[in-house]
Amino acid sequence: MHIHILGICGTFMGGVAALAREAGHKVTGCDAGVYPPMSDQLRALGIDLIEGFGADQMALKPDVWVVGNVVSRAHLPDGTPKFPLMEAILDAGAPYTSGPQWLAENVLQGRHVLAVAGTHGKTTTTSMLAWVLDQAGLKPGFLVGGVPMNFGVSARLGEGRTFVIEADEYDTAFFDKRSKFVHYRPRTAVLNNLEFDHADIFDDLAAIERQFHHLVRTVPPSGRVVVNGLEESLDRVLHAGCWSEVRSFGAAVSDFCASGEPDAFDVLQRGTAVGRVQWDLGGVHNQLNALAAIAAADHVGVAPGAAAAALGQFRNVRRRMEVRGTVNGITVYDDFAHHPTAIRTTVDGLRRKVGPSRILAVFEPRSNTMKLGTMKAQLPWSLEQADLAFCHSGGLGWDAVEAMAPMGERARVAGTIDEVLAQVVAAARPSDHVLCMSNGGFGGIHARLLKALEP
Fold it and tell me: Cα 63 vs. chain centroid, distance in angstroms?
């Protein structure tokens, strides 16, 4: 089968492409604004990438067009379609489907699906869970919205019955406004946390809770729902109805909880120590992610002690507090954080690691939610533990200077990445930690910083 993927360089659609290629299908795709690591991974797999969404791609005549949710029926100011290829597909009556639907029908059917949902930590927890199952000899398939360093790829089919997938609540496609995860039909569902996000498609928290409950409805009676016991929003989701076994984690009275610091802790199962995690990761958020992975792995027969031991060898995910280099005593990190809670958690994790050393937080409000300004008032709170904060305000429809004003002299705002770069270079000094946070490429600021900071 020949499939052509529209929006192939997104983390999810790129993973779908990798799985389809591994399954023996011919895969081509198109996108705009391509950046690593996904573009590198796709080219390494021999997948041809076409820049843009031109209607001339109709000449490829694939068996099916797989449409990513980046595609819409939008028009440019001059009245021309933003995605002329999609308009041509519709006009021709050609067969098309969404990425999640294609995945469900061609990869997930018949597998024991372990789906990891949540506002934060999906990528990391999915990677942890896949690693734990791999080390237990289950040979899992997986699809992660990032590149786990233990595997070096974001997706693989696997040889075993289990398949671990990052379960995103964002909508499926312009023609299917349900959350992606309702397509996956998991037997094990992890509900990691839940707060308001994706303001471009959800009106309020209740609307997201409704989608999470749709996911819970799909879990069979012999399945398991693994839920964060610290989250009132998830309590409400389960109170609306749950027909499967529930295992909680995180709270003091939970099926799985932790005792000790985030980088070295005992795993307690109903009060009894069953394993110990010692690793290089920091932050309470990663401790909770680990408990979620252990509880999910337990459902497919991996003993908590074995899961904890495997996590000791977990190397995290690219762009999750990834050290990009150290120059002149200044360490530069790359992190995917973009929601205020994730930014706060990330800065807190680095603060625990570096102690009193200065943290320079460099970020761009790039997600649709942040671009709308829905959570701009939370930014000073999210950056509380940073010594200095640098905001790239280009393309925003709200006043970043006003939003950052509560931070006083600790905040800097610049309209271009060149200006941000200059501000950081002027402020940085040996022993500083420069934390760059964005859900995009951030104009390659990490490499540019390392070069500019050279003595």
Answer: 30
SS3 at position 357: coil
How many C-beta atoms surround the C-beta of residue 444 within 10 A?
A: 11
Give the relative orientation of helices 340-354 and 284-299 as an angle to the nearest 10 degrees. Answer: 110
Residue type, 213: H
Crossing angle between the packed helical segments 122-135 and 304-311, to the nearest 10 degrees? 110
Q: Which CATH superfamily is domain 322-452 in?
A: Mur ligase, C-terminal domain (3.90.190.20)
Task: Spell out where 348-442 has E strands.
Answer: 359-363, 388-392, 411-414, 433-437
The CATH class, in words, for 110-311 is alpha beta
Domain ranges of the chain: 2-97, 110-311, 322-452
Instruction: Going from the first residue of the chain to its last (455 residues), give the mean pLDDT of each consecutive group of 10, the final group possibly shorter.
Output: 94 92 95 75 87 96 96 95 98 98 96 94 94 98 90 92 95 94 97 77 85 96 96 94 96 94 94 94 89 98 97 84 89 85 85 90 80 79 91 84 89 91 92 90 87 85
Contact between 297 and 137 under an 8 Å Cβ cutoff? The reply is no
pLDDT at residue number 199: 60
| 99 in Cβ contact with 174 (< 8 Å) | no
Crossing angle (nearest 10°) for helices 445-452 and 417-427: 40
For residue 398, the model assigns a pLDDT of 84
- Asked if residue 430 has a cis previous peptide bond (ω within 30° of 0), the answer is no
The whole-angstrom separation of Cα 304 and Cα 315 is 19
Fold of 2-97: Rossmann fold (3.40.50)
Distance CA 342, CA 316 (A): 16
Per-residue buried b or exposed e for 140-163, using 16+ beta carbons within 10 Å of the residue's own CB:
bbbbbbbbbebbebbbbbbebebb
Kindly report the pTM of this predicted structure: 0.79
Selection from 220, 122, 106 nearest residue 168 by Cα: 122
Strands 64-67 and 2-6: parallel
Q: What pLDDT score was predicted for residue 37?
A: 65
Residues near 451 by Cβ (< 8 Å), separated by ≥ 6? none
